[in-house]
UniProtKB/TrEMBL annotation:
Residues 127-274 form the N-acetyltransferase domain. Transmembrane segments: none annotated. Pfam families: Acetyltransf_1. PROSITE patterns: GNAT. Gene3D superfamilies: 3.40.630.30. InterPro entries: Acyl_CoA_acyltransferase, GNAT_dom. This is GNAT family N-acetyltransferase.
Length: 274
């Protein structure tokens, strides 16, 4: 796996990540070779991404970035790989952008035998992972509620903007949604999107009472097998650093590609985005 060109992988991953959020947006505009995306106040698709590779980002374009988000009442946000030009970072800093957090991007070349990873060793008896029929409204809603459960504080209901974007995402033609059940009870969920030979795994959650029992690894295994069916040669996962998702991905053969930087510009009356 060491022969993977990480700069080229980053371009490939960042381009697909940008296209994915554009498909879910209520409003989007190009920014150099990437995009600025808005999906409503409180939406996780509110971001600028996918730029800084094949085209210079001018000062006027960075000013437009600030205006695009602030005019919609949300903090301007930029998600960048470490391979973007230093001049871009300087331009964002001059406009008041600060580092909010890092995200880890992991990769795994696909060999075609990923179906052999199932069943996951140590998984509890009675655990099944099924692909959700996107035309089954009840099943899709269950998937979205379970998949999104790990991204809201425990005990709180899912914000409507999360639910609506999740339902739209689950019905995208390039997407597949998987629901894990233990003795018939939904206990975990995760999605993936396949395009241009790259399958990105996302939105994985396991209900608190069922964690540390192999559920997440079973969900990863099922999506890797689906990636091969979709004709992908590479799989990717984006995770917060050091959380169980990152550790489970590495147990399943993923390697760290790079850390993304999430930069934001604070402002009076501007709402942060997840």
């Amino acid at each position: 796996m060491s022969d993977v060109n990480l700069v080229e992988f980053a371009r490939r991953f960042e381009r697909r990540a940008a296209a994915s959020v554009v498909a879910l947006a209520t409003d989007a505009a190009p920014l150099a070779d990437g995009w600025m995306v808005f999906g409503g106040v409180g939406s996780y698709v509110n971001k600028s991404c996918g730029y800084g590779y094949g085209q210079e980002v001018t000062g006027a374009e960075l000013d437009a970035l600030v205006t695009f988000f602030s005019s919609r009442g949300v903090e301007p946000k930029a998600e960048l790989s470490p391979f973007v030009p230093v001049a871009l970072l300087q331009g964002l800093a001059e406009r008041g952008f600060v580092l909010r957090e890092f995200e880890t991007v992991l990769y795994r070349p696909l060999r075609g035998d990923e179906a052999s990873l199932s069943p996951v060793r140590g998984a509890p008896p009675g655990l099944t992972v099924e692909r959700v029929d996107p035309s089954d409204d009840a099943a899709v809603r269950t998937f979205v509620e379970v998949s999104g459960s790990g991204f809201v504080p425990e005990g709180e209901s899912m914000p409507e903007v999360f639910l609506s974007v999740g339902l739209k995402s689950a019905r995208q033609p390039a997407s597949d949604s998987f629901l894990a059940r233990l003795d018939g009870v939904p206990v975990g969920a995760g999605g993936c999107e396949s395009s241009e030979g790259l399958t990105t795994l996302y939105g994985t959650s396991v209900l608190p009472a069922y964690r540390r029992r192999g559920v997440q690894q079973a969900l990863i295994s099922a999506r890797l097998a689906r990636a091969v069916e979709r004709g992908s040669d590479m799989a990717a996962i984006m995770s917060a650093p050091g959380i169980p998702t990152e550790r489970n991905a590495m147990r399943m053969g993923f390697l760290m590609a790079y850390s993304r930087a999430v930069l934001v510009k604070h402002g009076a009356g501007l709402e942060p985005s997840p």
